[in-house]
Amino acid sequence: MKKVLSVALLLAVLLSVFTGCSSTPRKKTALTIGKAEVDNEVFSYYLDAAYSEAEKSGADLNDTNALMERAVDLCCRYVGTTTMFEQISLKLDAESRKAISDDSEECWRLYGGHYTKAGVSKSTIGKIETVEQYRTALLLYYFGEGSEYEVSEEEIEYYFDQNYVEFQAIVGYLTTQDENGKTVELPWRELADLRTEFYTKRNRMNEGASLAEVNGDIEVSPIFVSVNSSA
């Protein structure tokens, strides 16, 4: 709650800088980058992301200038990615469009209550996820197989070996959303069953079973964590 209130207060201060302090209704545009307008909700999302980054790194959360600069940087990447994607007339395939839908739904299911309080709607989460798919498409266009600057599989493997640690995990969520979109704990019975399930899986793995064996038919994707801050 403290984080949401801090972000909301900071956003109000920053938007007053962008839109002026008159008594007229607040503009929907938070800032303009080149000829592209970034609306208040997209800026709110990236300001929240900037706050989260600062919180995780132990940076000064009261340094509004640094938070604003980081949010603007993220907005620039958002605009730059969209502009480049459109300029070279790329198209998202069916798999990418499905990923946007699935990722947006999952994000909203888990964090919809938080984003609602931060002034970010579900449709804006869709915009953010769309730009992430644009970014992936651009990387493949420029560096994928058969591209002008193709990066070999060996180079990719070497990069990840040098900069990341790979591990696998079974993920479970202890919260859900109520009918008002508020994030709440699972009912106590579901919570108890979930914890029992995870303790059982942990014990089986401690006895020598593999992650795939204890997780059954559920696909487990690798997770990569950077060990190099510049990576």
Structure, briefly:
The protein is mainly alpha-helical and 231 residues long.
**Strand order within the widest beta sheet:** 1-2
The radius of gyration over CA amounts to: 21 Å
Distance between the termini: 32 Å
Decide which structural class fits the backbone.
mainly alpha
Strand proportion: 5-15%
Give a quick account of the main beta sheet: strands, pairing sense, barrel closure: 2 strands, antiparallel
Please give the number of β-strands: 6
Q: In total, how many domains does the architecture comprise?
A: 2
What fraction, in percent, of the residue positions are helical? 55-70%
Helix count, DSSP H or I runs of 4 or more residues = 8
Q: Any idea what the shape is? A: globular
Q: Low-confidence parts, pLDDT < 50 over ≥5 residues?
A: 1-26
Structural topology:
Elements: H1 2-19, E1 29-33, E2 36-39, H2 40-57, H3 64-87, H4 94-117, H5 122-143, H6 153-163, E3 164-168, E4 175-177, E5 183-185, H7 188-206, H8 211-215, E6 222-226
Helix pairs in contact: 1-2, 2-3, 3-5, 4-5
Would you write up a description of this structure?
With 231 residues, the chain is mainly alpha-helical. The model is unreliable at 1-26 (pLDDT under 50). It has helices at residues 2-19, 40-57, 64-87, 94-117, 122-143, 153-163, 188-206, 211-215; strands spanning 29-33, 36-39, 164-168, 175-177, 183-185, 222-226. The longest helix is centred in the first third of the chain and has 24 residues, at 64-87. 61% of the residues lie in helices and 11% in strands. It has two domains: 2-151, no CATH class; 160-226, no CATH class. It has a two-stranded antiparallel ribbon. A two-stranded antiparallel sheet has the order 3-6. Strands 4-5 form a two-stranded antiparallel ribbon.
